[in-house]
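R.M. (postdoc): so does anyone remember the format we settled on? I'll just put the structure tokens first.
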């Protein structure tokens, strides 16, 4: 990401722009971490179930990764 500073731009406003950029990046990283944690929780919870328990809820063991991924797409974006 490149940020050009024009002659009319003060150092303070340039730093404010950088701060805004870094704040956005931090929020995005936090969202990614939260989504990964939710995926890991769902995957782990399903993976510890027996084949019989999975069958009772209509999930095959080979579908656990897909189901965990689909659950993430149903969730709202995390606000951090």
């Amino acid at each position: 990401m490149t940020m050009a500073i024009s002659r009319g731009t003060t150092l303070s406003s340039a730093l404010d722009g950088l701060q805004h950029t870094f704040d956005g990046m931090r929020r995005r990283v936090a969202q990614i971490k939260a989504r990964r944690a939710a995926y890991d929780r769902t995957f782990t919870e399903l993976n510890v179930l027996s084949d019989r328990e999975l069958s009772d809820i209509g999930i095959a063991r080979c579908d656990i990764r897909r189901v965990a991924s689909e659950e993430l797409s149903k969730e709202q974006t995390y606000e951090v």
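R.M.: ...and that's the designed sequence above, right after the tokens. Also worth knowing: The two ends are 23 Å apart (CA to CA). The helical segments are 11-47, 51-56, 64-74.
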